[in-house]
């Protein structure tokens, strides 16, 4: 503000000065808050990588956890069984959640009467807000009590978590498919179901993949639904989903409280692997999202 | 409806109008079943949890909520009082810290930052939400805990020791203060990303109008952006609170799992969700299982109320502004 401008006096009042100071204070505060969030991210991810790096080698991915008696050389130990267990459980959860979520989204977006759509949407929103530990307890009392733990039961709990997320993102892309495409298909004499499955749904595939990938990434890190469904596992390699299987989150959870520094390092290593998996999944999701947006805009 | 009839081209297609085609009926039924699964599941969850908690609900009644005990008197007395207290203190504490930080981040990303900074910072903040709670808990035990006992705790006690919440120096890293910090880290990205979308949705004309009247940027935010997004902010905060209340893993890792009520935040405590998680290796008696599920009932009731409230707010606002 130039001092010799004719309006300068207006801006030099005490009141204006105060207003400006308050404004500057808030702007600096907002910037600091954003830096703080990024700083925390860097600190957390930094300490995971720094402390976990030493644990990560070929054995970490190809060996199962080995007990150390305290005498002699330490046996090579890894989290192969936990990685495989996580992949199996997440894969099954996706298999359960994906059809239900996509069909729900189709119903809500293409077929449902307004009022019923409102009820269903509300139910899924509420379901989405139920704490993961409560879902774990539900599956525990529903299918675990009296029957024992199993990996697929954990998948079931995780699937309940994933359905609302996938349904929501599928609905969002279905809404983006132009009505004119549906009309063109119907005008050619195609039935509604044919139009939905061969015209509308293919347009939305990118969005569905994005939603499914993000939901999978989130479910992969969830520990609470695993506690009561697949926590009592052995150290051996196991592919059978009717047994309780080891998982990366449970490995971190149980190793974190060990006093043994090597165990702790393994927990950090497992955390690094988990974050790596989630990061890769998120990047894939982002790539698919970008691609499907470009397609929607007609640039193939 | 015969298949031969379906294949007849031309005029037959017109005759079909108004009748339901089998394919359409099938699609309708299948998708409806999927859609109703959400409603059914919600009912099933409520029922199963209530049934399993019933023995404890019958034995302790509502007195469960005001009893401070877990397995006392030879595993016959259970109560949720200290866990309800711990849940309230940690989640409200986290909300208190997270609200200004989240609003500030949302303002920075929607109003202040140049586009290229937005492009970098916004995904990073969302990445913070993607860190699994068990990893945050691991970090809480092994990094944050020692930092609180070694540096932060003594400093806060030194400067604010006259406040009852900082009455003692932390002796162990596992305490309610650590849980508050971890929960804050968890809910900031959620609340801030919702608020950022709300702030971006405020019509530019309104902001321009205020700016043209000579308002500073902060005055625009206070006078236009906040009032416009008020209901949405409330809904975002409720969702954040719900998340903090329901978080089990990270909290159970850092809070110390103690059946006790302390005003001092540097003392260990426990929350509802964390107590449930802490018992995963098996409860000894049927009564203990039922009591555990009773805790889940309390959480479920709270999350149902919180979510319905948030959804109602959002829907009312959406109706008013005709957005979404």
Q: Can you describe what's shown?
A:
The complex is a heterodimer of chains A (300) and B (324). Chain A has twelve helices and no strands. Chain A has 300 residues and is mostly helical. The longest helix of chain A has 39 residues. Chain A starts with 7 loop residues before the first helix and ends with a helix. The mean pLDDT of chain A is 88. Chain B is mainly alpha-helical. Chain B has one domain: MetI-like fold (Orthogonal Bundle), CATH 1.10.3720.10. Chain B contains 13 helices and two strands; from the N terminus they run H-H-H-E-H-E-H-H-H-H-H-H-H-H-H. The longest helix of chain B has 39 residues. The N terminus of chain B is likely disordered. The interface between A and B is large, with 90 and 88 residues.
Tally of strands of chain B: 2
> What string gives the helices and strands of chain A in order?
HHHHHHHHHHHH
CATH superfamily of chain B: MetI-like
Whole-number average pLDDT of chain B?
89
Total domain modules of chain A: 2
Structural class of chain A: mainly alpha
Q: Determine the strand fraction of chain A and express it as a percent band.
A: under 5%
Helix content of chain A: over 70%
Query: At the third CATH level, what is the topology name of the largest domain in chain A?
Result: MetI-like fold
Spans where pLDDT lies below 50 across 5 or more residues of chain A: none
- The span between the termini of chain A is 51 Å
Question: What form of chain B results from the Cα inertia axes?
Answer: flat
- What is the average of the pLDDT values of chain A? 88
In percent, how much strand structure appears in the residues of chain B? under 5%
Oligomer: heterodimer
Number of helices of chain B: 13
* Major sheet description of chain B: none
CATH A-level architecture of chain B: Orthogonal Bundle
How would you sum up the global shape of chain A?
A: globular
CATH T-level fold name of chain B: MetI-like fold
CATH architecture of the largest domain in chain A: Orthogonal Bundle
């Amino acid at each position: 503000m130039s001092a010799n401008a004719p309006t300068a006096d207006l801006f030099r009042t005490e009141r204006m000065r105060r207003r400006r100071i308050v404004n500057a204070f808030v702007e600096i505060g907002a910037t600091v808050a954003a830096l703080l969030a990024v700083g925390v991210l860097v600190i957390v991810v930094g300490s995971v990588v720094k402390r976990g790096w030493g644990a990560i080698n070929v054995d970490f991915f190809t060996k199962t956890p080995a007990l150390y008696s305290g005498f002699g050389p330490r046996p090579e130990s890894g989290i192969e069984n936990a990685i495989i267990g996580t992949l199996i459980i997440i894969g099954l959860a996706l298999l359960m959640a994906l059809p239900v979520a996509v069909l729900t989204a189709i119903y809500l977006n293409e077929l449902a009467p307004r009022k019923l759509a409102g009820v269903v949407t509300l139910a899924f929103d509420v379901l989405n807000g139920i704490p993961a530990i409560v879902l774990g307890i539900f599956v525990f009392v529903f299918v675990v009590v009296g029957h024992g733990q199993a990996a697929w039961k954990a998948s079931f709990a995780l699937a309940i978590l994933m359905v609302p997320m996938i349904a929501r993102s599928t609905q969002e892309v279905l809404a983006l498919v132009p009505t004119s495409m549906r009309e063109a298909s119907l005008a050619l004499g195609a039935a509604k179901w044919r139009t939905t499955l061969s015209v509308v749904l293919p347009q939305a595939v990118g969005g569905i993949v994005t939603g499914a990938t993000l939901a999978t990434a989130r479910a992969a890190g969830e520990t609470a639904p695993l506690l009561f469904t697949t926590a009592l596992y052995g150290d051996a390699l196991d592919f059978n989903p009717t047994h309780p299987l080891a998982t990366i989150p449970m490995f971190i959870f149980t190793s974190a409280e060990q006093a043994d520094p090597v165990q702790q390092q393994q927990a950090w290593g497992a955390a690094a692997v988990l974050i790596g998996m989630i990061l890769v999944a998120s990047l894939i999701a982002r790539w698919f999202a970008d691609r499907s947006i470009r397609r929607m805009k007609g640039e193939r | 409806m015969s298949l031969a009839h379906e294949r007849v081209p031309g005029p037959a297609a017109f005759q079909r109008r108004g009748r339901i085609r089998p394919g359409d009926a099938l699609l309708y039924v299948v998708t409806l079943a999927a859609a109703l699964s959400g409603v059914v599941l919600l009912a099933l969850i409520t029922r199963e949890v209530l049934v399993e908690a019933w023995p404890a609900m019958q034995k302790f009644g509502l007195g469960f909520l005001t009893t401070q005990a877990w397995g006392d008197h030879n595993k016959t007395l259970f109560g949720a009082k200290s866990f309800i207290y711990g849940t309230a203190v940690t989640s409200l504490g986290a909300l208190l810290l997270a609200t200004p930080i989240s609003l500030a981040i949302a303002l920075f990303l929607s109003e202040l930052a140049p586009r290229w900074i937005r492009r970098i910072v916004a995904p990073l903040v969302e990445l913070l939400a993607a860190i699994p709670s068990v990893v945050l808990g691991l970090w809480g035990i092994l990094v944050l805990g020692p930092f609180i006992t070694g540096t932060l705790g003594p400093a806060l006690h030194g400067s604010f020791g006259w406040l009852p919440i900082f009455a003692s120096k932390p002796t162990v890293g596992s305490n309610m203060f650590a849980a508050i910090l971890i929960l804050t880290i968890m809910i900031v990205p959620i609340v801030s990303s919702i608020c950022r979308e709300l702030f971006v949705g405020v019509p530019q004309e309104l902001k321009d109008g205020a700016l043209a009247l000579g308002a500073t940027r902060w005055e625009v935010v206070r006078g236009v952006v906040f009032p416009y997004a008020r209901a949405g902010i409330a809904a975002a905060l409720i969702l954040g609170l719900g998340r903090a209340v329901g978080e089990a893993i990270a909290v159970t890792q850092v809070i110390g799992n103690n059946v006790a009520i302390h005003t001092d935040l540097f003392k260990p405590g426990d929350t509802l969700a964390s107590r449930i998680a802490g018992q995963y290796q098996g409860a000894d008696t049927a009564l203990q299982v039922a009591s555990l599920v009773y805790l889940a009932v309390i959480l479920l009731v709270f999350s149902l109320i919180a979510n319905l409230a948030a959804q109602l707010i959002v829907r009312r606002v959406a109706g008013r502004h005709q957005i979404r």
